[in-house]
Amino acid sequence: MPATLIDGKATAARMTAEIAEDAAAFQHATGIVPHLVAVLVGDDPASAVYVRNKQRACEKAGLKSTLHRLPAETTEIQLLELVEQLNADAAVHGILVQLPLPKHIREQVILDAVIPGKDVDCFHPHNVGLLVQGRPRFLPCTPAGCQRLLAEYKIETAGAQAVVLGRSEIVGKPMAMLLIQRGAVADATVTICHSRTRELASIVRQADILIAAIGKARFVTADMVKPGAVVIDVGINREGDKLVGDVDFEPVSQVASAITPVPGGVGPMTIATLLRNTLTAAQLTVG
Ligand code: NAP
């Protein structure tokens, strides 16, 4: 059974249009244009592309975006000083520090320095804590993007067996946290797998909903997928000049009932959620 293609690009475009409408209404009421500042340190080409895509998306939604490009030799102290400056600037609503940072800078120190009210990536312990308690200020961008896709395609999550492959702070952990909350597009029974998981294939095979986020090209093969499962592929891996996910797309799409492509699946949803968080950050400044 060839799976339904879950179209992240189209869904993200709809979300961006919704955000544009809400941002325009907010601006009309308050005179404030939500402003996202991106900080890019060094010259990693992939990071530069990600930041450019985020800036373009801001433009489409009518949000202001500014980029601070710093050289690879920037010190931790210098970067902290910039973050402090942005924290104190009332005209900045969201701060995004593009990862990875050069090795001599401790990422945790920098991410912790972004004040919770401007932490639109939802990395700060305060925001993660609120998320765990089911009362988020901001939504974790990639996991919330996956959740929105499940909602758009009316995937039943209540009581479903969901398996999250990967336990990173950015994707795996917050993804599991969203799916176990009480409420809509949640209430799932969640298992998290990682590199030390035993019998991984047999656990994955039990999933009604599989979220793959491990960063290993085509890791999930058709024999690991339960017939009729919904497969959300977060992975972005380079194979020559091609991008592929963590799921072996063609064979798995013969087994799954619905599947996201790479590219055009989760990626655009991550950016759309970031825009939503930036608007939320601006709205929170006026109460
Ligand atoms: P990460 O920080 O490297 O985490 C990878 C996770 O996968 C870790 O928990 C690791 O386990 C687990 N893992 C690695 N190899 C495994 C294996 N063979 N079997 C089982 N588990 C394994 O990666 P990430 O930041 O979460 O990103 C994951 C993928 O998603 C990457 O391809 C990344 O590019 C992509 N991504 C996409 C988006 C998007 O918007 N589409 C956003 C973020 C990330 P341990 O913890 O035991 O090491």
Q: What would you say about this model in short?
A:
This protein has 287 residues and is an alpha/beta fold. Helix content is 41%, strand content 16%.
Topology:
Elements: E1 4-5, H1 8-30, E2 35-41, H2 45-61, E3 64-70, H3 76-88, E4 94-97, H4 107-113, H5 125-132, H6 141-152, E5 161-165, H7 172-180, E6 189-193, H8 200-204, E7 209-212, E8 230-233, E9 237-239, E10 242-244, H9 249-253, E11 258-259, H10 266-285
Helix pairs in contact: 1-10, 2-10, 6-7, 6-10
The site of NADP nicotinamide-adenine-dinucleotide phosphate has 25 residues, from helix 10.
Describe this structure in words.
The chain has 287 residues and is of the alpha/beta class. The protein has two domains: 85 residues, 3-Layer(aba) Sandwich (Rossmann fold); 127 residues, 3-Layer(aba) Sandwich (Rossmann fold), CATH 3.40.50.720. It is 41% helix and 16% strand. It has ten helices and eleven strands. A six-stranded parallel β-sheet has the order 1-11-8-7-5-6. Helix 7 links the parallel strand 5 and strand 6. The longest helix has 23 residues. The radius of gyration is 19 Å and the shape is globular. NADP nicotinamide-adenine-dinucleotide phosphate binds next to helix 10.
